[in-house]
Write a structure and sequence with these properties.
Elements lengths: L9 E4 L2 H38 L2 H37 L4 E4 L3 E5 L3 E5 L3 E9 L2 E9 L4 E5 L5 H25 L4 E3 L3 H32 L7 H22 L6 E3 L3 E3 L9 E2 L3 E5 L3 E6 L6 E4 L5 H13 L4
Antiparallel strand pairs: 1-2, 2-3, 3-4, 5-6, 6-7, 8-9, 9-10, 10-11, 12-13, 13-14
Length: 324
């Protein structure tokens, strides 16, 4: 593997054993998890509908058909969602070699896939806690290229992209502003929603476990020696749940749009826009903020937001020049 601070290309190679193991794990785990999700979602929906309709015998044939169709649809939808997520995760590790050049990315597997920097519209560096988890290249024509930690040395990839892709995107955004266009950068809402849902579920399971342990302890008149492991498991689930919810909530209210006249939250013109003449950029690490001496509410973009790494460099230059 080449040092990302040295010569081009920067090359990363996945060992054969790692690729084979990954393919086997995804091939086995994805169908099992998808089937389990469907078997869980279907009965839950059926039980909820029966509770709403009353006893299935009272609901009649029409009600029973509704229950079966809705429960079946929910089960199939859950299976499809998990299968799609598994396929996307597998694709994120596809290929045996990556090569990063000053003008493109190449992924070499059964065939060679090439993405030039001209095709890339947005760069996302998705973090979980304090660790970079995934690099996503969103393409102009739709679609994206996702590279995950565990499959690739993600820190080397980020360093190489900061050398090559970040300057190219910065110049493209600057040119768009000069032509009178506004450029919007959004938070990863899908990533945020997944964090919120998984965090809420994890926290709920943790609370349920702790609640059951507490009820059993009250019935026995005190805690027992077998309560330690459930308490630890419940506490860990609740802690993970709170962390997931906190991560998901951190994206709310974010997003940033650069216009020829200033910086605002949404893509549409707004009286709350911070003019270039009074704007100040503050890099807080976890998020980038733009405010002014007028006391404007800060316009924020998290480090997992679209092209955050580009704006960290570009905004101070634009503010120093008082605009594009």
């Amino acid at each position: 593997m080449n040092d990302a601070a040295g010569r081009w290309p920067v090359t990363l190679v996945r060992p054969l054993a790692d690729r084979v193991l990954g393919a086997v794990v995804y091939a086995l785990a994805t169908p099992l998890i998808a089937l389990g999700s469907g078997l869980l979602a279907g009965p839950l929906v059926a039980a909820a509908l029966i509770a709403l309709l009353g006893d299935e015998r009272q609901a009649g044939a029409a009600g029973l058909v509704v229950v079966v169709l809705c429960a079946g649809s929910a089960g199939l939808a859950a299976m499809g969602f998990v299968a799609r997520a598994g396929w996307r995760a597998y694709r994120a590790g596809a290929g045996r070699e990556l090569r990063l050049w000053p003008d493109r990315l190449e992924r070499i597997g059964r065939r060679v896939e090439v993405w030039s920097w001209e095709e890339v519209d947005r760069l996302l560096l998705l973090h979980t806690s304090d660790q970079l988890d995934r690099v996503v290249l969103r393409l102009r024509g739709g679609g994206e290229v996702s590279l995950r930690r565990g499959h690739w040395d993600i820190d080397v990839i980020r360093t190489a992209l900061e050398r090559a892709l970040v300057p190219a995107l910065a110049e493209r955004y600057r040119a768009a502003l000069r032509q009178g266009e506004a450029v919007a950068f959004r938070e990863p809402l899908g990533f945020a929603a997944a964090s919120l849902v998984l965090g809420a579920l994890s926290g709920a399971w943790g609370a349920l476990i702790l609640g059951l342990v507490a009820l059993n302890a009250l019935e026995r008149g005190g805690p027992g020696p077998g309560d330690l492991h459930p308490v630890v498991a419940g506490a860990l689930l609740m802690a993970a749940g709170l962390a997931g919810v906190k991560l998901g909530v951190s994206f709310q209210g974010g997003g940033m749009t650069l216009s020829p006249t200033g910086v605002r939250r949404g893509p549409e013109p707004s009286p709350d826009e911070v003019p270039w003449a009074t704007a100040r950029a503050i890099d807080r690490g976890a998020r980038l903020e733009v405010t002014s001496d007028r006391g404007d509410l800060p316009v924020r973009l998290s480090r997992s937001g679209e092209s955050h790494a580009v704006l960290v460099r570009l905004l101070p230059e634009l503010i120093a020049a008082r605009g594009p």
